[in-house]
From TrEMBL:
Bias type Low complexity, positions: 212-228
Keywords: Nucleus
Domain EVE: 3-176
Domain of life: Eukaryota
Chain segments annotated as transmembrane: none
Organism (species): Marasmius oreades
Region (Disordered): 196-305
Pfam families: EVE
InterPro entries per record: 5hmC_binding, EVE_domain, PUA-like_sf, THYN1-like_EVE
Protein's name in the database: EVE domain-containing protein
GO cellular component terms, A-Z: nucleus
Length: 305
DNA sequence: GCCAACGTTGGC
DNA sequence: GCCAACGTTGGC
């Protein structure tokens, strides 16, 4: 069976080590096929290693003014070493990776089509914050309760930082339907949004910090960072081997395809106090299979400028 | 630009 | 192996 995925790319310019790492849907559509280099997060990398040729993937614009699903694509080449990690001048250079034992991998994705209606993250969040079917905007009521449930369970809304995610079939079908039918362009809701709650149990009142459910993650984008001083050892993985893939990217930019400009709610909870120490463990992994995370890089293009 | 979320480092 | 400090991701 085939899996469905979601890959992020940054549509806005961002200079890293002198090079622009942006990769928007416009560029993707024009180049058609692109290697997803730059992913430096173990969990994201491991997911890429699972990708098979022909599997479908959502192309998501991230770290931009209007983040959301912009296009549909397909895996056109399974995981292979991300050689950009060996290039010292590359934004995502990782001194710990080398040709003999590549630490990072990438896949090639081929552009298939644009979403007729760009699906903003704000809408997906809004839907995922609806507690009952009656809260769902009529304009998108066609996704049904099943669609709502599927969106609520997406990593995109439950753990935003992973740059390469798995998408279940129902969620995939729901996104495809929404991209096809749209309907929210005129919505204006905003008022509701329960705030960031959603799937993870967040403890509100008593709070504890530890969210037990979450744990790990991977970040996405931004790359490497390994340039810092050599600190400790990462748990990476490296070795593992065997197959795995990896990828990533993000994008965004202004696009509003369709409009959307609306925000279906925003709200973030504020609560600061860091809960940081609470536990959390990593997900990826190191080694093999694990998942873990590393950081994922952005994607492609390194253009300079 | 702010800052919540969370992965990573690294002392112990 | 635990966990506090630190650095990043990335939405807003």
């Amino acid at each position: 069976m085939s899996n469905f995925w979601l890959l992020k790319a940054e549509p806005d310019s961002r200079i890293v080590k002198g090079k622009d790492v942006k990769f928007s849907v416009d560029e993707f559509e024009s180049v058609k096929t692109s290697a997803w280099e730059g992913v430096r997060n173990y969990e994201a990398r491991n997911l890429m290693k699972e990708m098979k040729v022909g599997e479908k993937a959502l192309f998501y614009h991230s770290n931009c003014k209007n983040p959301g699903v912009a296009a549909f694509s397909e895996v056109s080449k399974e995981a292979y070493p991300d050689y950009t990690a060996w290039d010292e001048t590359h934004p995502y250079y990782d001194p710990k990776s080398n040709k003999d034992s590549p630490k990072w991998f990438m896949v090639d994705l081929t552009f298939k089509s644009r979403a007729d209606h760009f699906i903003p993250l704000s809408l997906l969040r809004f839907i995922s914050n609806c507690s009952s079917a009656s809260d769902i905007p009529e304009k998108v009521a066609y996704i049904g309760e099943e669609g709502v449930r599927a969106i609520k369970s997406m990593d995109l809304v439950t753990r935003g930082r992973l740059s390469v995610q798995r998408v279940d079939e129902t969620a995939w079908n729901t996104i495809v339907l929404m991209a096809e039918k749209g309907g929210w362009d005129a919505l204006e809701l905003d008022k509701k949004m329960p705030s960031t709650a959603v799937a993870t149990p967040k403890a509100k009142s008593g709070e504890r910090s530890t969210p037990k459910t979450r744990a790990a993650p991977a970040r996405t984008k931004r790359a490497t960072a390994n340039t810092k001083s050599p600190k400790k050892k990462p748990v990476e993985d490296d070795e593992e081997d065997e197959s795995d893939v990896y990828q990533e990217s993000e994008e965004s930019s202004e696009d509003n395809y369709e409009d959307d400009g609306s925000d279906y709610g925003k709200s973030r909870s504020k609560r600061r106090t860091s809960l940081r120490g609470t536990k959390r463990k990593a997900r990826g992994g190191d080694d093999d299979d694990g998942d873990y995370t590393g950081r994922a890089p952005r994607r492609k293009s390194v253009r300079k400028n």
